[in-house]
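Wed. Picked up where I left off yesterday with Major facilitator superfamily (MFS) profile domain-containing protein. The coffee machine is broken again, so keeping this brief.
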Amino acid sequence: MDSVYERALNEIGDNGKFQKRFDFIFNFIFTLLWAMAYNSMILALVIIPYSCKLPSKPDNISEFDWKSKYIPISTDAAGKTSFSSCQIYISPDENNATKECDAYFYNRTWYESTVPSENNWVCDNELNVANIFAYGKIGEAIGSVIFGWFGDTHGRRLAYISSLCLLVIGRFISILSSHNYILFAIGCIIAWFPSWTVEQSVTVISMEISAQERRSKITILRTIGYSTGMCIMPLLFWWLRDWKTFMIVTTLTQIPFLLFSWNILESPRWLWVEGKGKACIKELNRIAKVNNTALEKDTKDELLTTKKTQSIQALGPLSLFSGWRLALHTSLQLYLWVSVTLGYVVLIMSSGEKSDGNPFLEFAWQSVAEVPATFIGAWLADNFGRRYAGAASFSLSALMWIIIFFKEYGAGTWLDKWWVGSTLVIINRFSTTVSYYVIYLLNMEIYPTCLRQSGIALGNVFASSGSAIAPYLMYMARLKALRKAMRDGGRSAGAILFVVTLLGAVSVLLLPETLNATLPETIKDAREFGRRGDDEYEPVKMKMVSTVSKDND
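Structure written out below (tokens, as returned):
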């Protein structure tokens, strides 16, 4: 039976002008701009190709011979020769003794400047880049817990305002203190600390003021906005070329939303669950005014008298483990976050450092693949269910990783062609986007209203903790001294990601189907969600709904 809040939402319109306008402004435009501001540091920290700076070359000697005189040459396991990027001969005319480079030359074909090139974070100092990413991920993990609890106890709006403020402050600290490693790292941690709270807060608000059938549309719009931002971001850097200008431009896009953040809607569903009837009615009236509707007096009276107590909510995210069924659902979703994010971070970090082509176009093409993936993910989720859509996408990603595993054995064959690697990465990015889409839907539909943002934030904790490994894998892959070892390491990484992703496919099948199911409001609802034989939480088949509507007509 529908709650009084559901009745109130039906009276004011759960698919009206207000919802559509809110979604376009926040789930598309804002998400697009936020994606660039939040992820801009990925490109700003790219380590561009470099080598030791040499004396001026005479005109009567070739480039290769001049480099060979000063720089050691090594041969990898595939038989390919390359010059050292970090070593130079001390006395090239006397012996083969080497030392670290005194100065560096940077290939500025694509990047005019990045943070590592500006501060010479190369060779042994490349670890600075990995550490900053790791610090940021640890900050994300801690911040996810805090802001998830904050959003569920103090409201979606306040969580949105405070996290957006930290993003802007943190970015400007990093921009102004790039030559001070500690201050720069602090700025990165501050900006990443709220994690995805800003974007998730507006999505949760939208979900909680909309009809069931709009859930997929909301997630589609949000995902397309994010993917579009990720596609525009590298092209913007390609145009600006300088990391500081790029960071300033992307951060400034957040200022208008911060200035007008006081006017954003608070979730009336959250207010109702918290027993704040007057505030709930005030926000519902805002929606009704735009939708040209009105709340009935009896509904208002019932909203004012209904009190929902959630004493268990004081435990915060721990409440999601308060019953065996809810604990199982939570654990499975947390693993899905780790599985999909680990692979995704490896994909986007590697694309920004592509050295055999245009890294910006490579990054953009991969992001473009996310747009059709969103529509296909929505179609699969709405026609075959969330579980089967997720299982299919995770399985496809697992297939891509195992092919990458065997590709490492294919040096000198067609598997070693550049287009094979690019194709595998794009398909993998495609399937990963579908997986993200499904996980977002499951999080929104399985967690109860009183702990929905805490549940999503807890997923961010595990995702951030798992993805903190990726920067160190990238760091090790750059060490020339470990080139041969990393050929074996690359195969192991492909095999590990295959197993991790395949387990994700199994995990999503163990979750309850949520297609057209009623959102759980309380902890009790969430504990019973997905229980066999419980008609209240049995997902409704879309075709059955259509048939009933026609019969009633």
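Quick read: Residues 51-106 form one domain.
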